[in-house]
Specification:
By secondary structure, the protein is of the alpha+beta class. The protein folds into two domains: about 5-210, 3-Layer(aba) Sandwich (Creatine Amidinohydrolase, Chain A, domain 1); about 215-460, Creatine Amidinohydrolase (Alpha-Beta Complex), CATH 3.90.230.10. The protein has 13 helices and 20 strands. It has a six-stranded mixed β-sheet with strand order 7-6-5-2-8-9, sandwiched between helices. The chain has a three-stranded mixed β-sheet with strand order 1-4-3, with no helix packed on it. Helix 1 (about 25-40) crosses helix 2 (about 70-75), helix 1 crosses helix 7 (about 200-210) and helix 10 (about 320-340) runs antiparallel to helix 11. The chain starts with 12 loop residues before the first strand and ends in a 17-residue tail after the last helix.
């Protein structure tokens, strides 16, 4: 990677993407989302949202930029250092009547040389379908002039926004202007003849209720991400062997994602062999080789922002042994029962309770536990969360509603040295599918990924497209 020269001292090397306005959701989607939000805002209020900060990896290298999900949901804008203001009703600003303003950075040729093309205000207005887009240079004066409103809505401000001292209009500066002109000014008492209520709850609640219910466009994007992830699971089933490492298995999944146009994973890939699978969010993926263990693979492609979340657990040698099969079938039965219970109107917790009952009985029957209360030791998590722009997407977590998409992912994890027969030690199994809730019943969007023992073992006998992918030996 190139390093900045002395003449570029006021820029650091970051991985902010070039202009990428490819958006299968379309401008109408984002415009409608903004309208839905403003319809639920309190009377005489305005809302302020900020783009995600650039986060540092080490020294002068940043992590690849990922836009704040709420900001993208409402704008379609993918660049940093931006802000959005929405009003509950159209308001008169000078000679204009507006309800929305997007603040974006001006184009900077030197920045573009190093980081890639920017949209800038003029193109953002045209390409994103906004009523009004202006330079971030106007944000401070604009927020200082906000008068006559009863409430300002904003999300809780994150505390990891860096001050890019070379950029006077960075996100840090925008947030400081907002605090100075709105939050601190009114919380500490204002000389103006009105009181402004600072509301950090309503906006989050409105966005959670909106993002819980997926539009047809969003469901289409999720189906694409899920289909790509299913192919990844299938190709690993064909390619895996006991001599592979966890990171090689991870690499196959992510290679498939890229081949189908998914630029990223929705979350750090989890590939845990044997006892590693007992660590619920194991992402080290360092076992080399995986041996004859079960391999738990919790991976999901992110397709233009929308993420799948699928888990399969398979035997690296191609065959489940007796103990592995016994535990596996309990988890599978629990998952199938939970999926069938995921119907419109039931409490969000219902599928989890159904799965837990099946697992309790199964573990008691095998003699692994004696009392139902002991199940928590081996099944320590819930079964469901929403998915969408985030792998743990926001939602109300109330009764299940049509057009929400949830995971159902029971598991059994028996770490080494557990208080049971050692023959069970090191067995970790999770089975996870992505379920669309409909008025006609649950629809398993990831059902094409084999998950019965017979289906998995049969798939693992199929030839792999990677069999001839042989790299030269390294002289190390």
């Amino acid at each position: 990677m190139l390093r900045t020269s002395f003449l570029m001292f006021f820029f650091v090397i970051s991985t902010v993407a070039q202009v990428d306005v490819k958006d299968f959701l379309g401008t109408d989607f984002h415009r409608e989302r903004r309208q839905k939000l403003t319809e639920q805002m309190p009377e005489n209020s305005f809302a302020v949202l900020f783009s995600a900060p650039i986060r540092n990896r080490s020294n002068d290298v940043d992590h690849p930029y990922h836009q704040d999900a709420n900001f993208y949901y409402l704008t379609g804008f993918k660049e940093p250092h931006a802000a959005l203001i929405l009003f509950d009703q159209p308001v008169k600003m000078g000679t204009e009547i507006i309800q929305e303003i997007l603040f974006v950075p001006d184009r900077n040729p030197l920045y573009e040389l190093w980081e890639g093309e920017q949209l800038g205000p003029k193109r953002a207005k045209k390409m994103l379908g906004f009523q009004k887009v202006v330079s971030t240079s106007e944000f401070d004066a604009f927020t200082a002039s906000m008068m006559g409103f009863s409430q300002v809505l904003h999300l809780k401000l994150v505390d990891d926004v860096r001050d890019h001292t070379n950029n006077p209009l960075d996100l840090y500066s925008l947030v400081q202007s907002f605090k100075k002109n709105i939050v601190f000014h009114h919380s500490e008492g204002s000389s103006k003849n009105y009181a402004l209520d600072i509301n950090t709850n309503s906006l989050s609640e409105i966005l959670s209720s909106l993002r819980e219910l997926k539009t047809p466009e969003e469901i289409s994007m999720l189906k694409k991400a899920i289909s790509i992830s299913v192919v990844g699971q299938i190709e690993v089933m064909k390619a895996i062997d006991a001599h592979m490492s966890e990171r090689e298995i991870q690499g196959i999944h992510e290679f498939v994602f890229r081949k189908y146009g998914a630029k990223h994973q929705g979350y750090p890939s989890i590939v845990g062999a044997g006892n590693h699978g007992c660590v619920l969010h194991y992402t080290h993926n360092t076992a080399d080789p995986v041996g004859d263990n079960l391999v738990l693979m919790d991976v999901g492609a992110s397709y233009y922002g929308y993420t799948a979340d699928i888990t399969r657990t398979i035997p690296a040698n191609g065959l489940f042994n007796e103990q592995q099969a016994a535990i596996y079938n309990i988890v599978l039965d629990a998952q199938e029962a939970a999926i069938n219970a995921a119907v419109v109107g039931v409490p969000f917790s219902t599928p989890g309770k159904v799965a837990r009952n099946v697992i309790e009985k199964g573990l008691i029957d095998l003699g692994i536990i004696i009392e139902p209360s002991e199940v928590q030791r081996y099944f320590p998590h819930g079964t469901s969360h929403y998915i969408g722009l985030d792998v743990h997407d926001p939602g109300t977590y109330g009764a299940l509603k049509s057009n929400s998409v949830i995971t159902i992912e029971p598991g059994i994890y028996i770490p080494e040295n557990s208080p049971c027969d050692p023959k069970w030690w090191g067995i970790a199994i999770r089975i996870e599918d992505d379920i669309l809730i409909t008025n006609e019943g649950p629809v398993n969007l990831s059902e094409a990924a084999p998950k019965t023992i017979s289906e998995i073992e049969k798939m693992m006998q199929q030839p792999s497209a990677l069999e001839d992918f042989i790299l030269p030996e390294l002289d190390l």
